[in-house]
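Saturday, quiet lab. Running sequence design on the structure tokens for the scaffold JK sent over.
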């Protein structure tokens, strides 16, 4: 049993690459705050001390972001909070005197911060629209469940499953956002009995929610999860007797991540299972 090298590429290489790219922006942000503090020198001493605190906060949160090495945007948010707070305090204090108006200084600060934000994270217009999300393959699969029914997906990541659930209005039939435990178990990180325990969790969820349709990632480059679950969980084996395997469904992961890091063609195949009447 092997996990696809592409999955490791997505889960390990891409996040590290993004962390390094964003890390440069974090360094530039700290330098900018330092310049505002020591170069332009805010007039108000209390503001100067507050900006000092923001510089320290930005440095610490930026360091934590790099140490995590996952490249997730929400891990960057603490840095952005200190970064923009410090810049706003310093700029407003600097600009209100030459502009002779606190209101004018506030407006100028707002304009500059908008410019800073666009430099830090340029506006991307390639993201899928709401209409696009409703047309995606996994959304259509979830829609095939029918009114009031659930669906189940084993794919490359939780992001695509969440989108399918939101835009189809159907519940994903699992306690797991995706089968995140597989990588660790297949690498030998689990304790004795963990394989059976987690396989039984999946079986229990299928028994409880009775998904009307399932899409299971499959292909020569991917780990085949159905035999693994069947081997470790008799309950899963029993649940699968209620399903009929239909033809494969091909999807392009790119459709879910346009304008983002994974915006390149990457075709995957799902085996579709329908619950027998």
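Result came back. Writing it out in full:
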């Amino acid at each position: 049993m092997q996990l696809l090298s592409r999955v490791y590429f997505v889960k390990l290489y891409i996040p590290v690459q993004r962390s390094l790219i964003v890390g440069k922006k974090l360094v530039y942000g700290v330098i900018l705050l330092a310049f505002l503090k020591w170069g332009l020198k805010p007039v108000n001493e209390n503001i100067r001390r507050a900006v000092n605190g923001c510089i320290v906060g930005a440095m610490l949160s930026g360091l934590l972001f790099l140490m995590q090495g996952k490249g997730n945007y929400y891990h960057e948010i603490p840095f952005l909070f200190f970064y923009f707070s410090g810049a706003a305090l310093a700029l407003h204090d600097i600009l209100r005197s030459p502009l002779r108006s606190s209101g004018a200084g506030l407006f100028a600060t707002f304009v500059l911060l908008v410019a800073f934000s666009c430099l830090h994270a340029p506006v991307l217009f390639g993201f899928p629209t709401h209409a696009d999300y409703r047309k995606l393959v996994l959304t259509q699969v979830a829609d095939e469940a029918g009114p009031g029914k659930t669906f189940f997906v084993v794919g490359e990541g939780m992001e695509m499953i969440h989108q399918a659930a939101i835009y189809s209005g159907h519940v994903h039939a699992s306690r797991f956002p995706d089968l995140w435990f597989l990588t660790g178990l297949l690498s030998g990180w689990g304790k004795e009995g963990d394989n059976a325990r987690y396989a039984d969790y999946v079986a229990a969820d299928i028994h409880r929610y009775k998904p009307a349709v399932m899409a299971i990632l499959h292909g020569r480059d991917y780990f085949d999860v159905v035999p693994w679950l069947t081997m470790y969980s008799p309950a899963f084996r029993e649940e699968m007797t209620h399903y009929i395997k239909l033809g494969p469904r091909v999807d392009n992961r790119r459709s879910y991540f346009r304008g983002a890091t994974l915006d390149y063609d990457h075709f995957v195949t799902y085996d579709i299972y329908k619950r027998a009447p």
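Notes for JK: The radius of gyration is 25 Å. The chain has eleven helices and four strands. Ask whether to fix the surface positions before the next round.
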